[in-house]
Amino acid sequence: MEFHGINKTTLLDFPKHIACTVFTGRCNLRCPFCHNADLVLQPDSQPVIAEEAVISFLERRKDTLEGICITGGEPTLQKDLLPFLKQCKELGYLTKLDTNGTRPDVIQAALDEKLLDYIAMDIKNSPARYAETVGLSSVRFSAFEESVDIIKNSGLPYEFRTTVVKEFHTKEDFLAIGEWLKGSKCYALQAFKDSGNLIQPGLSGYTRDELTAFRELLLPYFDEVLLRGID
After folding, report:
1. What are the pLDDT digits (tens) for 171-223?
2. SS3 82
3. What is the pTM of this model?
4. For residue range 142-179, what is the model confidence (pLDDT) as tens digits?
5. CA dist 133 to 31, 130, 162, 177, 197, Å?
6. Is 81 helix (H, G, I), strand (E, B) or coil?
7. Is the Cβ–Cβ distance between 85 and 95 less than 8 Å?
8. Can you give the pLDDT at residue 40?
9. Cα–chain-centroid distance for residue 78?
10. Is the CA virtual torsion 59, 60, 66, 71 positive or negative?
11. Nearest-angstrom CA–CA distance, 201 and 39
């Protein structure tokens, strides 16, 4: 596994659990609003944390931490993801995967081996605007559809989530997302904030009131709609 960062304790990343978060490098998307631009564009320039060091940390903290969140970058691009998840489970950890949904085969393999306890998938935008929003000329949208179906039918706690950027998301986009994901358990709207390390500088977020209006719009489509990161 290629790790480039670790948050040793978090109460936010893994709902209802005390966890740590590890960051993998590399991604197959180029979302302009990505707040981990260096992990996507220049992963080789980032400090590396050896997998052995992560496992050692987990061994030391297993009486304190309940879970581990694997995020990125895009973790499903890592060839050793499943063996790493297995090690985490053997240490007694609950595991959460953050994914962009481009590798439904990896998600399914992890589920088949019972290596996941929670899945969070980023929903970048409405189907019609997906390629634009992920910074590519085209995408295989069927991969995202397949991942959504796998996650919805996994039997695990899960969430779909969208980072809301004024330059990319409109009321019409959220209505289209609602129709696509209709009947899902949990959908989260995440307020965009400029980290200073974006792929495309100069983007902006919506206000609390505007995000609340989007949430009201989406309530009929989901069991639960959350707002995150609002001031």
Report:
1. 999 999 999 999 999 999 999 998 887 888 899 999 999 999 999 999 999 99
2. helix
3. 0.95
4. 999 999 999 999 999 999 999 999 999 999 999 999 99
5. 6, 5, 11, 13, 17
6. helix
7. yes
8. 85
9. 15
10. negative
11. 16
